[in-house]
Amino acid sequence: MSGFTSICDTSPVCRKSGVEEVRVSLQKRVTYISVPPVSSYNLRSLIERLPTSSHTLSNADNHTTKRALFMNRPRILVITPDDVLRDRDGLSVYTGQMLHAISRHADVEVLCLKPSISPSGRGAVSPYRCHHIDCRTIQFVARVRSTISAKPSYTLEYRKQRIVASAEALIRQFGPEVVVFNHRRAAWLIRHIGVGDSVRRVYVCHNAEARSIQTLARLIRNPVARFLAGRDARKTAVLEEKVISDSDKVICISREDVSDLRLEERGINHAVIPPWMPDRPRRAPENGGPPTILLAGSLNWPPKLKNATWFTNEILPKIRKQRPETRLIVAGLEASRLQKHLGSTENIEIHESPDSLDPFFAEASVFVIPERQEGGLKIKSVDAASRGFPIVSTVAGVSGAHLKHEQHVLIADSADEFSAAVLRFFENPDLARRLGNSARALAEKYFNREVVDASWVRHIVPGA
Known about the structure:
Elements: E1 4-6, H1 12-16, H2 19-27, H3 43-48, H4 59-69, E2 75-80, H5 90-102, E3 107-112, E4 129-133, H6 139-146, H7 160-174, E5 178-182, H8 184-187, E6 200-205, H9 209-218, H10 223-246, E7 249-252, H11 255-260, E8 270-272, E9 292-296, H12 302-322, E10 327-332, E11 348-352, H13 358-363, E12 366-369, H14 379-386, E13 391-393, E14 410-411, H15 415-427, H16 429-446, H17 449-460
Helix pairs in contact: 5-17, 9-10, 12-15, 14-16, 15-16
């Protein structure tokens, strides 16, 4: 159990003990309260009703008490590569939506393949308990090993035995009826972690992974790096097939991924569950300022940094030939990494890891999605559509989002076509308004929270 911690285990003895010892120590201090049927109560309201005297329960005690209260609820373990409570990329958004949906109907624990940065203070505000494992290897070493290994590079970034030991100990202690393997960076473990014959295994597929990696490989200019990336895509395709065959159900984020993975024609038990979008304010009318473009994304991932560089260095100059006053706002995780790739920084604002994109949408005229990797669904496309924003995107950028060219967005794949589409919106506010309103209506239809939450519950929670 080396490296195993929980965000709810706040005392030194809890942090140093194994799962079994932690459970024994906590069971001595369980508090029971009488409540009406669970279906009529919100999980947080139950936590608020716990004792508040000098013997107030710790975060770990709170969770143990919830276990006593909800002992008849289904139990689900989710294994995920990232910290859903801390990270803010698309993977974490989608995963967080799944966790909050199923935790209203089941007792959920999360095993995160990343060490916790701030263990204390978060368990009480989350309806699920999250354990962290410090199991990462050195990335450079993993990439070197992958050149001679039959395994995809991302599987070599983890200490497999440490994860397997921690996961199997948690399974023995928690006794889940379902284990969810979330994203390919956790799903490869489905062949190594013993869950028991009676436990359902669900693979949540965020992309048709092999296809996505293959399209990324085509964008690499260095021939050696391109060859290695293509080889990694082929190894991923083999592993992807094994993961799917070992899963009792596969959940995809888009219908396009179902097609790419050939799930229907092979009779694989599957479901499509997209992300939901919160209610967004409608796009405000133009304020008469200079035309402003918003580009958002997690630039800590190299392919997205390449996409942003392509836009700033090849597309933006073409736009400025006709509209030299054009502003560009770049916002997202580690957005400052773009600075060293810029040919010119004139009228370009870079906002590093903002808490919200709302202020930037309020200033922008057009939202751009210069994505070139295929597969999955880019949540930013649905986010912009839900705001009624005029969008210019590549085909890959709106894949899986139901957004159609000239009906909801303008689609362009070359630098010339992309710049021309942005200029069309600048010159034709009526077109921008019409397509934006159409995109918002579509987002409200397909990415509704109630429908999406119900889908998560129906396809994952036993007996729902």
